[in-house]
Amino acid sequence: MAVKDFLAKLKKGKSVASPVSKQKPAAPIQPSKQAYQRQSYSIQQPKGPSVGSRIKSLFKKSTPAIAAGGVAVGAMASSAGSAVGRGARAGARAAGGGLLGAVKTESLMLFIIGLVHFFFIKGTSYHSLFSGMVLLPLGALTFFNYMKSIGSINSAKGGWFIVILFGVWYVLFGRSQTGLIVLGVMLVIFSIAYGLATKWDGLKEILLGFVPLIFLFLDVGALSAFFQGFGIEPTDWAIALMLWVPWWAMLGLFTLPSGGNAVTLLKMAGIFYIAAVMIIPLVSSFGPSSTVPFSLGEFVESQKGLEEQFSEKENPAYSQLVCVFYEQLDVSNCVAKRQQQSEYKAICKSRELKEGTTEFNNCIKEQEEIAKEGKSAVGGSITKSLSEFTQADLSKPKDFPRETTNKQETYPAILSITNPGKEEFGVEANCVFKKGKVEVAGQVSIDGKVGNALKFNKDSGQLRIGCKPATKLSGTYKLEYNVKLVNVETFSYLSRVFSGKDTDESLLKEVETDKFSKVVYNKSQSAGDLAILNFRFGSSEGDGATVNVDNPVLFIFNVENKGKSNGKVVKINNYEFTGLIEKGFSVDQTREGNQDCLQGGEILVTSTQTKERRPQQLKSCYLQLAGDLKSVGRIPIVDTFTAKLDFDYEFTTTETITVK
Amino acid sequence: MIKKHLEIIVVLAISILLVSCTSQESTLEQNFKTGTPDVQILSFGSDAAYQEKLFKLPVELHNALGYDIKNVKVAIVGLDRNYVELTNYEEDLPMMEGKSALNANGGTERIEFEGFLKKLLPGLEKNQQDYRIFVNYDSKLEFFPTICVSASQYPGIDDGGCKAGGKMSFNGQGAPLAVTEMEIVPGQETELRLILRNRGQGEVGKITLGTATIGGRPMFCEFRDSDSENPKEGLFSKTKTEIHLVCNSMIPGTASYETPLFIELFYNYEINFKKKLEISK
């Protein structure tokens, strides 16, 4: 069927699948040399059913919705094939082969499953598992078959060897360095042997074997892990690629052999999507990290950080699409505005405000004001110079009894603490067993002693927190642990250079170059405690290190969660900017701001307010400078200010247990 | 025996004496106003210290210029006062002698900055302070070659005098600021085109024209293409690495002759030296 006929029938609303199904199976005729060169993969298709019947059989296996689209694809492809077929028999055969390729089961399956994975599984706890166990084998199968079909490789043995080798290293060798060396040696030996046996053609197969692995790592967030691991600030397009590209679906899409208009359109749409995603300007702020995660799970965790940071924004591709239609004259501004507004909406929704209400609108206005005044630009970073910091993690021990016959079993959780500074803080533990609306209180023991609280002041340790139900259990329960660290202390410091109207510009420039050339030095520095206190002061624009004493000096602080993913800052007990107070700074009461911004007591905080990488401002005010800084002479003054924070940190973890 | 070798011993002794004595140029004859020397720091304090201790930062300054330097300001810049508290961050010296017949080595001054190293922040094992010693001074430059001038516009014609006109290069006048090139355009109103460059490691501030004479007669001079609006002042900038000074003078007679030129330029100069101080617990 010609393309024109097909389009005409589509317009009339007739079924386009039926003529395809009526086609007779094509006879297995060897194509001409010319046709072979044009569509080399066509001759590799097995002898058998016609294009139409192949399409039909394919869509029989698919869901109805997919099948509908697939029929259209098949019909269009068939139409194209018929058009070619009118010319020469061999040509038609070649085109028919292209159609067969176009509907390759694996490619479509990968495309569809990849999309399902992107929309429904990505970001859940099954992300890395699904990606590794389902999409990697399917992706490898699809990719190798595609490469075979276009004649790039004759066999996929080398490729499969790499994928399997990776699986062996990951699962059996537990990602160990020894395993990497052993398997690396095996890889080299195999490569040489296989290369010799295949006259070096096999080396291409081996190299192509890494392609599905690259897609696996892209999907699970290797890019974000890379950026965070090396303390690199990802570029806008890199962030967009990390968050908004369904990598596996794209592999499926681009391995769909060309041959039909629908396939070409889909591929163009895919390219357009990637391009749209990459050109959206996004803002990023990352601090340096000391480790590079290497497990798929850790990659996923690392990507979660990015997702937390950016997922509140509207999908940039969607913003782009809407703006192209509605704001043709100023698309870039429109996209930026939509992105910003979507972020503000998310912040306001997190405060449990309903969209459309006056409170919600006021919240949006407040966010706009904050952005306008640069008040949200308070970043902090963790310095390696401060070696003593407190970290903790609540985990489940290996001997955790998920299933038991003991009606009053003691269920353990392990609180691991590193506290090299031997700071003293309290530990309070609670637990509860939940089954529907029924709650059974748990009796807590710490290291075998009944009681739910103690003081901890060792340099490190593991506390075994036992939870025993108060009454006998039967059935499946959710066991919820709450472990709170009380009165944990942390401190931060911030360096600034003060200048005035008489300050020598060349001296100031040299100081800025020597001390504040790296952006990170402009920010407050903290040890890697569970939470850090970020603060800055200076001009209201940006967070530069130079404070012009002749201008109003704005001060802002926030608290940022730096603990593990199952922990959060629940309360600030007190905060004090000791360095500023001791050196004679005070709150400028003639200007707007929180009068208790330099020193204060209890503040209850939400996890949104203390979100890692993007905590919200807690207090702000204008400062009265210390007496000796009110006028700075020719020489700029460099000073460092310390601050301390006392906070409560809570770990929550839930386990499912079954009592038979 | 001694008598026999007396002559040889005497000859040897005289030879030794003669060899030991070198022909030293008299300092009076030496020209100290040559080259492009800079102010130097001969020594400074230790680059490592411990917290909670008194701290001394001695700076020994040497004026290697062929001129005196005045209004010398030595400043310590960039030390974080949360770690190092100095009693004074800047010291003034009214004057430091340059190299001269009376002081062939140039003047040397020792300044001592005193202070206290504070306690490091909790958790910090050490702290490194990057700082700079800034030296700022006022000085001058004298340019006094003997040049050949001619009122004739055709200096190539041999009039029995000297060869007037053409370009000349100079390797400095004993200061970081230097006249490096001069072109003489002969004629009744002879024009001298001088190029000034900063050959030092620091930065030249404002240059002010002082006395300018040719053969003892005043000359009219002004800076061209300077960033300063005042034609009697010259200013370097990031993009301007050379400054042009143009002088004009009426030349009497028609024959060429040699005559002393004297141009005096006052300038401000700043140089800094990067240092480190590591404070340990």
Structure description:
The complex is a heterodimer of chains A (660) and B (281). Chain A is α+β, with helices and mostly antiparallel strands. Chain A is 43% helix and 22% strand. In chain A, the strands form two sheets. Chain A has a 16-stranded mixed beta sheet that branches. In chain A, strands 12-14-19-16 form a four-stranded antiparallel beta sheet, with no helix packed on it. In chain A, a hairpin with a 2-residue loop joins strand 6 and strand 7. Chain A is globular and about 80 Å long. Chain B is mainly beta and 281 residues long. Helix content of chain B is 7%, strand content 53%. In chain B, the strands form three sheets. In chain B, strands 2, 4, 6, 8, 9, 13, 14, 16 and 18 form a nine-stranded mixed beta sheet that branches. A five-stranded antiparallel beta sheet of chain B has the order 10-11-12-17-15, with no helix packed on it. In chain B, a hairpin with a 3-residue loop joins strand 11 (177-185) and strand 12 (189-198). Chains A and B meet through strand 10, helix 21 and strand 20 of A and strand 8 and strand 18 of B.
